[in-house]
Amino acid sequence: MDKLRALEYFIAAAQGASLSAAARRHGVSVAAVAKLISALESELKVQLLERRRNGVVPTAAGTSYLEACTPVLRQLTDAEQKISAGASQLEGTVVVGIQPIIAQEVLTAALPRFYALYPDIQLDVRHFMRPMPEQVQGVDIMLVMGWPKGAEELVHRQLGATTFIVVASPAYWAAHGIPKHPAELERHNCLCIRTNVGSVMDLWRFQRGDERVSVSARGRLVVDNVHRDMVRDLAVAGVGVARLLDWHQRPGGEVSRGLLLPVLGDWKPEDVPPINLLYPPRVRRIPRVRVFLDWVTQLFAEIEHERRRPYPATPMPRWLKSHLRRASATLETSAGTAG
User: Fold this and answer.
1) CB 296 within 8 A of CB 159
2) In CATH, what class is 164-271+314-338?
3) If you classify domain 90-161+274-307 with CATH, what class do you get?
4) Residue of 5, 85, 278, 339 with fewest CB within 10 Å of its CB?
5) What does the buried/exposed string (b/e) look like for 211-231 if buried means 16 or more CB atoms within 10 Å of the residue's CB?
6) 89: pLDDT confidence band, cut at 50, 70 and 90?
7) Taking a C-beta distance cutoff of 8 angstroms, is the pair 111, 66 a contact?
8) ∠306-316-275 over CA atoms, to 5°?
9) What is the CB-side half-sphere exposure of residue 101 using CA atoms within 13 A?
10) Which pLDDT value is given to residue 338?
11) Which string of DSSP letters, residue by residue, matches 135-164?
């Protein structure tokens, strides 16, 4: 048994919640993944993954093994990449188009690690929102959150997903009360963001078991996507309630530092946007671009692992397809249809 490969398959299956996710990541068949993981379980004499109808989840023993092995495998991967980088003398510029939210919340903190591995590669990072012809031209790699359109000629890989958390400052909750049910958000000052296509994201949808609730979020502030930091900063200042990406819960984020307090933790948001990697097929043949592709893929795999339970991306929501001025208008449309 190739134990290292078996370990890689196990970690990928656990992070992706399925054997097929591991197979896609490593470019092999599901049967090959299942065979090596079974061999690993036989050698360890424990069950690592519990097979369920909709995928797999780590057992208690599997979770412990995953936590112990993931850092070791990461160190080994970094060492291999560093040696390979030195051997191939990778150098030159990689042009990366990236949405500001991904750059701010994920890429910036991780880049020192990339530069330690590849000191002779320069990154030209450019503001990027949608795969439009004028933005794609001259860009090697694009990182986009959401449901991109117009990317038919590009290779499209989904790196994972992110989800939303409802937060406010501890002082705000102390003054206005912590909501126990999503419907109670309608009496709070909700700070909203406008999408890249001009729709205000004021429809906050939640699910708990079979119960679904849609909230029309109203407040005294709406900002364009490019100014979304204002929403975070005003929430920290105690002005109102924000719906932020769960990346803010990562180490060093506002939640971990106690500046923001999440609520409604037993409710799951219904809208879970994917994180997408887009690139022209030709650039995969360029060594410096290929190593960045592999590195950023691994970076988001680690983020998925941090969550312990991955969030499967959801299809594009109906309000986004409709190009409505406000997402909450779908509630009015539904009510009118029902009447």
Assistant:
1) yes
2) alpha beta
3) alpha beta
4) 339
5) eebbbbbbbeebbebeebebb
6) low
7) no
8) 30
9) 24
10) 40
11) HHTT-SEEEEES---S-TTSEEEEEEE--E
